[in-house]
Amino acid sequence: MIEMTWAQVSARRLRRQGLVEPVGGDTPAGVVAAMCGAHAQVMAAAELSVAMRLDGVTRTGVRRALWEERSLVKTHGPRGTVHLLPARDLPMWVGAMSAIPHSNGFSESVRLTPEQTDAVVSAIRQVVDGVELTIDELSDAVIAATGPWAGDLVMPAFQTMWPRWRQVMHVAAHRGAFVFGPARGRKVTYTSPPDGFAPAGGRDDLVRAYLHAYGPATPADFALWAGAPKTWATAAFAAVELEEVRVAGRPGWVLAGDTDLPDEPPRGVRLLPYFDAYVVAGRPRDLLFPGEAATRALARGQAGNHQVLLVDGTAAGVWHQRRSGTRIEVTVEPLRELTPGRLRELDTQVARLGEIMEGRPSLTIGRVTVGPHA
Question: Which letter does DSSP use for residue 319 in this model?
Answer without folding.
Answer: E
